[in-house]
Design a protein that fits this description.
The chain is an alpha/beta fold. The protein has two domains: 141 residues, Aspartate Aminotransferase, domain 1 (Alpha-Beta Complex), CATH 3.90.1150.10; 238 residues, Aspartate Aminotransferase, domain 2 (3-Layer(aba) Sandwich). Helices cover 38% and strands 14% of the residues. It has 15 helices and 13 strands. β6, α8 and β7 form a beta-alpha-beta unit. α12 packs parallel to α15. The longest helix is centred in the C-terminal third of the chain and has 28 residues.
Length: 409
């Protein structure tokens, strides 16, 4: 079992009086991440590529961090990682670059259940002659079905873009199965992993995805992001950097103005944390390498999240005036503890403000999945109320939230 008391000591913000249940909007930051950022800024805050020792140190640190993030998602090479300010920005850059390899009439398939980051970037290509098709969730299951995707795909389909886990529904899509389906039909796949990565360990090689994006500030780090692309694809795609940057220079040809050095280096703090948790929980059975230590820790994380997810879902499902969106039971393989719901006859905007007085942070709205909220007919109700939990949340915190809900609806 996850030693939750030890876990919480790594997050200074959790020592305060607030309970954070808005983690899908941004998790709390590890002290170890902050320490790494400070270390870079205070001892190696120089430009890379010079001959003097501090510049060499800065370059080594950035390379170390990039390699560590490749380990986090199990990429083949650090060259397959493009880091930048946000997932929205990274997917926009990808769409601008990748579209140069398409021709008018080529097709791109998006869903109606994604965060707009992995929809809008592709829809914008309509003005360049691309044809956009929409893979919709079914209203009865609120899930994507491959039979519906098959009806949309054609010989001109170049890309399918979808989310790994919904930031509203909490549903985990079977990305490996979908990827194989898309590849069999000659297209590429681009996956938004923002709502998945805080909860489960990403493995891009096992999934065989072509492109994958995630935000570090949802995974206990700073406001920084990562875009993965298979090396052979990144080499073929035209970059956006200055004309004299070689097209073989990946990932730099996609990093306008270069990458943020200190935030990238800061993510080593996440690796420090995961490694320490593995040693703390597994002792002599701790895996000898970082990747497998991550596997061990995320196993513990998923089990703990199932418990806290079930506690809240059981309560909400027993309220006759409450309607939970997505799966009604916690399931490590198919649901993360991002739980959205509506209350009969109550505007969703009125609930969180009443919970604020209990020093519990939750949220309402469309969470940039506006197309999904409109499809479900919930825009006029203020969208959904969302409680998004991660592994540092406790059963006691969930019980406090339930007590607060009892006073509100």
């Amino acid at each position: 079992m996850l030693n939750i008391d030890k876990v919480r000591q790594y997050f200074p913000a959790l020592a305060g009086k607030w309970t954070f249940f808005d983690n899908a909007g941004g998790s709390q930051t590890l002290k170890k991440v902050v320490d790494r950022i400070s270390e870079f800024l205070l001892t190696s805050d120089v430009q890379l590529g010079a001959s003097y020792a501090i510049s060499q140190l800065a370059g080594e640190r950035l390379a170390l961090a990039t390699t560590a993030m490749a380990t986090l998602i199990n990429a083949k090479s650090s060259k397959e990682l493009v880091m930048g300010p946000s997932t929205t920005m990274m997917l926009k850059v990808l769409s601008m670059c990748l579209s140069q390899t398409f021709t008018p009439g080529d097709e791109i398939i998006v869903t109606n259940c994604d965060h707009e980051a992995n929809i809008g970037a592709w829809v914008a290509l309509e003005k360049h002659g691309m044809k956009i098709k929409v893979w919709q969730i079914r209203p009865d299951t609120l899930e994507l079905h491959l039979e519906d995707l098959e009806l949309l795909m054609s010989q001109r389909t170049k890309l399918v873009a979808l989310t790994h886990a919904s930031n509203i529904l909490g549903t985990i899509n079977p990305i490996k199965e979908i990827t194989a389906f898309v590849h069999e039909r000659g297209a590429m796949i681009c996956v938004d992993g923002v709502a998945y990565a805080p909860h489960r360990l990403v493995d891009v090689q096992n999934l065989d995805v072509d492109f994958y994006a995630l935000s570090f500030y949802k995974v206990y780090g700073p406001h920084h992001a990562l875009l993965y692309g298979k090396e052979e694809l990144l080499l073929k795609i035209p970059g956006l950097n200055h004309y004299f940057i070689e097209q073989t220079d990946i990932p730099y040809k996609f990093q306008l103005g270069n990458v943020n050095f200190e935030l990238s280096y800061g993510m080593l703090g996440l690796c420090d944390y995961l490694s320490e948790l593995a040693q703390m929980h597994y002792g002599n059975e701790t895996a000898p390498d970082l990747r497998n230590q991550m596997v061990q820790v995320f196993d513990l994380i998923s089990m703990h999240e199932e418990k806290i997810g079930d506690r809240l879902l059981d309560y909400l499902n027993n309220k006759s005036n409450v309607h939970v969106l997505g799966q009604l039971k916690a399931n490590p393989k198919s649901r993360v503890p991002t739980i959205s719901f509506v209350v009969d006859g109550i505007d969703s905007s009125t609930i969180p403000v009443k919970i604020d007085q209990h020093y519990i942070g939750i949220r309402y709205g469309d969470f940039y999945a506006k197309r999904l909220i409109e499809y479900l007919g919930l825009a006029s109700q203020g969208g959904v109320i969302r409680v998004s939990m991660v592994h540092y949340n406790t059963l006691e915190e969930v019980d406090r939230l339930i007590e607060a809900f009892e006073q509100v609806f």
